[in-house]
Amino acid sequence: MMQRIVSYLNKPFCTAIIFISIIFSFSSTLKAKSQKAKPVYAAIAVDYESGKILYQQNADLITPPASLTKLMTLLMLFDSLEQGKIRLTDMIPVSRHAASQQPCKIGLKPGSYISVQNIILALVTKSANDAASVAGEFLGGTEAAFANYMTRRAQQFGMLNTTFKNASGLPASGQLTTARDMAILGLVTIKHYQKYFHLFGVREFCYNNICHVNHNYRLLSQKHIKFDGIKTGYVNASGFNVIASQKGDNGKRLIIVVMGGCSSAWRDKRVVEIAQRLKTLPSRIYIAQSKQHQPKAIQQKVTTISKSTIQTTLPPPSSPQDIIAQKIEQYVTASPENYTLLLGYYGSKLRAETVAKQAVVQTQLGQDKRIETKKVRIGGRNLYQSSINKLSREQAEQASSVLRYFNIDSSIIQQSS
What we know:
Elements: H1 2-9, H2 12-36, E1 42-47, E2 53-57, H3 69-82, E3 91-93, H4 96-99, E4 113-115, H5 116-125, H6 129-140, H7 143-157, H8 179-192, E5 204-207, E6 210-213, H9 217-220, E7 226-235, E8 239-247, E9 253-261, H10 264-280, H11 283-291, H12 296-312, E10 339-346, H13 349-363, E11 370-378, E12 381-391, H14 393-405, E13 411-414
Antiparallel strand pairs: 1-2, 1-9, 3-4, 5-6, 7-8, 8-9, 10-12, 10-13, 11-12
């Protein structure tokens, strides 16, 4: 009997059946894994002026940022422009690493050069990965070092659940964010970098005789609801994402973030739907409707987050620069208060004020502390000195120690009595 069974199993037909079964089993496993990794929808809408959250769903879900990463890369470029470290006309070398990045790209060649202005336009319109790597390597020495700096800068903005691993947003282990953090990034972009914000409305960019249409063209082309930016993104793990800026007829602006879209068209349609709903319904009604579809535990979390986060990370217009998470324990004020914390010199008064306000929040010195921006002439250039005045020696020393953690250099100066 046993010999019969062995003989039967040795037949080619049975071998084929077993082989096919293994293939089907393997494909089923792969299918299960792909379904498990399916992107989850997340969204948030924030009033630009007040920082009030008008709508949110899965806003704190951890997900890859994809090319929304390039928005932070652009802000780092804007910082360098404001500090006088680079100029729009500067020509930046293209490395073999940068040229080898996966599409989307503009086809940069190793050993060639590209201007800072063209890098910016390539990131805004084409979302070019090769151009992003060029910027990262030039500003950070290496793209990994640049990503670490981006992460620290994001934390200064209050984006506590965001970690960057490269300048482009291409898939990388540990590169993560949330819709809420991306909304903060959108607010920071408009509030801190208004001088450059018009660039996000550029419809087309031509380079080496090839013209690239802005990936945000659907939203920028809306007739009944006006959008003026900001950035799209996509990787398999996160789906189709966008940070959108929508300006109403009454002058009010919304920052809308949608992540986990199944297609770019569906994502853009969802952004328009959110904007239309908030335009026609009171915010309290829309929030109540969105909560009905969420588990009870999530509803409670939304309530507590909206009360605390709005005040710390999405501030009212009276202090638009203070989008910082306050995580450092407050210390006792000592006297006399005749010390100044010098925070450096910057190319614009706005930048100097921003650094000082961020430092006040990071060190929890208190909003009553006096910040000063003083125009000085150094090396034939007009610069603005940023400082926090009227501190005790203990305050100044502890604040300087805290700022070193955020990679901000400072000096302590004792004023004459």
